[in-house]
Amino acid sequence: MKLIAIDALMQSDEERAIPMLEKILSGNSLAEIERAGTVRALAERVVKAKDVLGADRARTAAPRSWQKKALHYLGIDGSNTSRQVLQDIYNSSQDPAMRKEVLHSFMVSGDTDRVFAIAQKEQSVEMKKEAIHELGVMGATNPASAAL
Description:
mainly alpha, 2 domains, 0% strand
C-alpha cells in the first residue's frame, strides 16, 4: 500500500515522495518492492529517484542484492553519466564479484567500447576472461578484438 501511495504522490508531488522512497529503500524489503514493480517505474520517471536507486546505491548499498540491482539499473539507464559511474566503480573496486557485475551492466547498456578497453588493459586474467565473455554475449565483431 505504501508503494501505491508513493507512486501516486510521485505523479503529483515528486519532492515530497522522494524522501519517502528513500526511507523505504533503506529498509530490507527489496523483494517486496520488486514484486510490486514500483522501483523501476519510479526510477524511470524521476531523475532524482534514479539517483537514489543508481549511483549512490551502487557505491554504498549494504545488502549485496541492493548493490547488484543498482548496478543493473545503471546499465539499463545506459546514459553517459550512468556508464561513467559504472566505470568509476569498476576502477575503484578490488572485489572480483563487483567488477563482474559492472561488466555485466556494461553489457546491458551495450557499451562495447568500455568492455573492449577493459579486456585489453585488464591485468587480472579472470576479469579479462569475463570482459571477453561479455563481448561475446554482446555480439561484438570488432576486428581489433583478434589482438586480445
